[in-house]
Write a structure and sequence with these properties.
With 476 residues, the protein is of the alpha+beta class. Among the domains are: 180 residues, PAS domain (Beta-Lactamase, 2-Layer Sandwich); 150 residues, Histidine kinase-like ATPase, C-terminal domain (Heat Shock Protein 90, 2-Layer Sandwich), CATH 3.30.565. The protein is 56% helix and 15% strand. Strands 5-6-7-9-8 form a 5-stranded mixed beta sheet. Helix 6 packs across helix 7 and helix 10 runs parallel beside helix 11. The chain is rod-shaped, with a radius of gyration of 52 Å. InterPro entries: HAMP_dom, HATPase_C_sf, HATPase_dom, His_kinase_dom, HisK_dim/P_dom, HisK_dim/P_sf, Sig_transdc_His_kin-like_C, TCS_sensor_his_kinase. Keywords: Kinase, Membrane, Phosphoprotein, Transferase, Transmembrane, Transmembrane helix, Two-component regulatory system. Its EC number is 2.7.13.3.
Amino acid sequence: MKWFAPIPLSIKLPLLAAAMMVLVGTVASQQVLRALAQVQDARIQELARMHVEGLSVALGPLVLRNDIWEVYDTLDRAAQGNEGRRMVLTAVADERGRVLAATDPRRVPMDSDIAALAGDAVALDDLSVDGASNILSLLAPLTYQGRTVGQIATELDVADLLSERRQALLYLIMGNAIAIGLLSCVGFLSIRKMLQPVTTLARQMTETKGEPHPIPTSIIPRGDGELARLARTYNSMVGAVAAKAEAERRLAERERFVALGRLSSSLAHEINNPLGGLLNVTDTIRSYSDRPEVVRQSADLLDRGLRHLRDVTRATLDQNRIDPETRILKLDDFEDIKLLIQPEVSRLALELEWSVDPDAVTQHSVPAGPVRQITLNLLLNACTAAGQTGHVGLMAHSKDGNLSVQVTNTGLGMPETALDRLLGDGPLSPGGGVGLRLVREIAKSMGGTISHAHEEGVTRIVVSLPASGEVSNAQE
């Protein structure tokens, strides 16, 4: 029945109904034909009984006298009567079974054995129109005044009865076929109309692009039936999904600002320290303006400090600028990420291990913005998890044709709530940000995967991104 499974439900049900109707029609037709056969058998038995009884009354004295000519004359007159059209042949024999007369003397000669004619003959009560032959043979005793004086053999033509039976069968087949066809069409249209909400629901769940759309109220069945409740439940689920997506979007925006706040604080700390040194340099230049070598060294130190501050500021602008076009990831993007994470590393006195394969970056055409966002978010979380004097690492290389970005850190490992945000698709639990969930959503939109492991005190998160990944505008 594997071929039956892919057939739509709106066709399965009419087919099953048609099959049931065929079964019922077949049983009903058999009952009708059986009843017709019983009526025909009763008619032919009654006709044969009247024929035999009439001949017994008329031929009894004649057979006793052995009056052959009177017997023949009586048979001839009986053959010319109404029943003669049914009785195609009648033969009368004496007690010894010797034929006295027959309606067809050539076929049944006088003084022949009547057993030769009645080879397939049956008794009166066993007479039945079975359809095997158009001619029925009957052999009955010739009784006169309670005494059997001879035998009567008769052949009956039942071709009209068989034709009537075949005609009835043809009418039954045609009637059943027409009824099944009409009722199947009506059933198909009715079931298809009844299943219209289910069809609409399936189309809404499979054919809509992006977010799901609710079923229009105008096509939801009236009342409180199963299909109406199903459609309303689906619309409620669509509303809940839309509300959840909106809430996650707002949380993502909030987390973005929180991350920017953390980054700004770290940058302010990083910039404030060099500024103090630069102010000292300016004081040195003012104090020793008459000493060219001191001024030159101070100018060089001032130049390096200002360039450092410029690089930090530029990297921050590049990270937070909304580009109208998707820019392909380059090796400089990882250098910017390293520069951006350096203040947090310095503040926590972390040991940073950095390994980026230039060939892997250039060979994989992936968008720069999403990769920068994923990497920076994971590194910020890794710095927080590692704590003071911990260890944080990043490695970017090519693996199985994908760009693999691995972030490691020492610490106690990620709690269950954080793992649910990073690896799960369920609703966000109260408290905490959505930075890890944002990492997952961006990776999924690019067709990538995320794996997590915690071994020997080291937490390892690997993001595998295929080439030519794309993200939605909302996430960019």
